[in-house]
Structures are given as structure tokens and as C-alpha cells.
Amino acid sequence: MALPDIQSKTRFVVEYPINASPKILFPYLATASGLSQWFCDDVRYVEGQRLNFIWDNDNHYAEISGQRLNKAVRFVFLDEQRQSVPDANFLEFTLDSSQVTDEVYLRVIDYSAPHDPREQHEMWEGLVSKLREQVGG
């Protein structure tokens, strides 16, 4: 009898300073139109709190599992039948402001199958660079 293929997940966390207010930045992190400008090829609302992230013509369905206006949003990815799964991949964006320096920091938490840490870091550097171009920061 074959054992089920249980793939461990890793939690990749990184922070980036961004020269934009949370009010300007948040729609780029939490809306389909904002995300499609920097994060993937396209993002479409499917139903309710569900979105379809499209990379290279592949659909990846996710549900917004938590959101605090101008602060944080979490997307939990669903299976091919658009159902919740235990220990699902998720992506979380959090905005923190420094009271001292008045800088805004974007924290990315990418919980998914393990990737080469250097490649994952480079991927996020590129994505956040595109985000900075969009928001002017």
C-alpha cells in the first residue's frame, strides 16, 4: 500500500520598506485589479471572497480568509475543485508603520511547498520592485 504524498510546507517571511501610505498601498495588496498590476498575470473575482490568480494561463483559486483595512490580508489557496484543504498554502501581506521613522513596511508571508530560498527571495524582490513602480515608492 502506497503512503499518501505528504509534502511539507515552509513559511517564507520577508519585509520590504515601501515609500507609500498604507491607504495607497492596500488596494494593490487586497483587490483583484491591484494585484493584477504587479503580482501575477491576472486576478479575477470568482464569488464572494474568492479570487482566481492566473499565472502562465494556470488558474489558482484562493479565498480571502482575513482582512483588516489598510493593515493586512490573507489569501488561502483552494484545491482544483475550489474547496478548502487542511494545511493549505497561503499568502499574507501585512503593512506596518514605524512611529519613529514614519516608514511603511510590507511583510510577506508565503506558506507553501519548499522552494530554493535564494530563488524565492529573488522572485519576491522582483515582485515588490514592480509594486514600488506602481505606487511610486
TrEMBL record:
InterPro entries with a match to the protein in the record: START-like_dom_sf (IPR023393), START_2 (IPR045736)
Domain START-like span(s) in chain numbering: 8-136
Pfam family, one: START_2
Protein name: ATPase
Species for this entry: Hymenobacter properus
